[in-house]
Amino acid sequence: MNMSLQVDIETSLTARDRRHLKERGISLQTLENQLATFQRGIPFARLKRPCHPGDGINVLRSWDTPAVMQNFERARAAGRIMKFVPASGIGTRMFKFLEAARLQEASNRPADTKDLEQFFSGLPKFAFYHDLKNVLSGQGQELDRLLAGNNYHPVIDALLDSLNYARLPKGLMAFHRYADATRTPIEEHLVEAADYAKDDEGRARVHFTISPDHHLAIQHHIEKARHALGLDRVSWVVGYSAQKLSTDTVAVAMNNSLFRDSNGNLLFRPAGHGALLSNLHELHGDVVFIKNIDNVVPDHLKETCSHYKRILGGLLVGLQ
Question: Within 10 A of 68 (CB to CB), how many other CB atoms are there?
């Protein structure tokens, strides 16, 4: 975006602005750098050549696998393995089309029925289906009858408001369904850690980066999961941290002037997952596997997932 720098930072910042910047740990130089980046844009990377086996791609030969696995097992046994899980995301984008349908109904505008029909036709397949059914039953409604009559809006209200899925962290949503239970992504990460990250003392180390607003809810959920998962001889060592406010980016108008909210305060946007590198660095971890909160598989796929985790970890240990 080609924008002109319209303001002199020194004169445009109020005392309150400076206080807010200081509270976030954002220096004046950092602010100026952000505005300069907006002005000049970010150049594209110039690629030198594509990767090929032997030139940027190492092909693991089948006879190398046992040695690689031994590398990993020694590291695992010694407690060198950790999982790092960015888990601050909430369900807003996942259910954006349902929120849009509610707004369209409230304004007497026709809703886009294609996404709604696809979602509701597959609703029984979702792990949260029975939770939704129970919530509606408690409200004197029958989910199957509502669906049969294409009466979707009570269902949307129950999902987004009663179950709070519009604002719930993705890690706390029912994600996978099993014969006798459902699991959240957080629970799946704990199970996965117990599979390939548990040391010989039975400790499996997992670190979640979370929103401070959801810390207590996530901590309570994990304490319940320790017992509900019913896994023997495993003790999860769980850590938490939040994305640092110092990595936020100031919002600007189209002319690169500082954008302010209705109260006259500067508006900041959280940075992407790259901002979590400082959190990762502060852990002083050794062999760390990084996986987003919703990047989990059900049990019948975990063996394949763990197999390649061990190979990747073993290759890394061999390079250290």
Answer: 19
d(CA 211, CA 219): 12
Q: Mind listing the domains of the chain with CATH numbers?
A: 65-90+170-319 (3.90.550.10), 96-162 (no CATH)
Q: Cα 315 to the chain's mean position, in Å?
A: 26
Angle at 302 between CA 72 and CA 134, to 5 degrees: 140
Asked if residues 219 and 240 have their Cβ atoms less than 8 Å apart, the reply is yes
* pLDDT single digits (tens) 42-99: 899 999 999 999 999 989 888 889 999 999 999 999 999 999 999 998 887 889 999 9
Contact present, 53 and 59 (Cβ < 8 Å): yes
Distance, CA of 85 to CA of 184 (rounded, Å): 14
Give the SS3 label for residue 208.
Answer: strand
Encode pLDDT of 138-174 as tens digits.
999 999 999 999 888 999 999 999 999 999 999 999 9
Positions of E strands within 62-121: 81-86
Residue 17's alpha-carbon distances to 77, 257, 260, in angstroms, are: 51, 14, 10
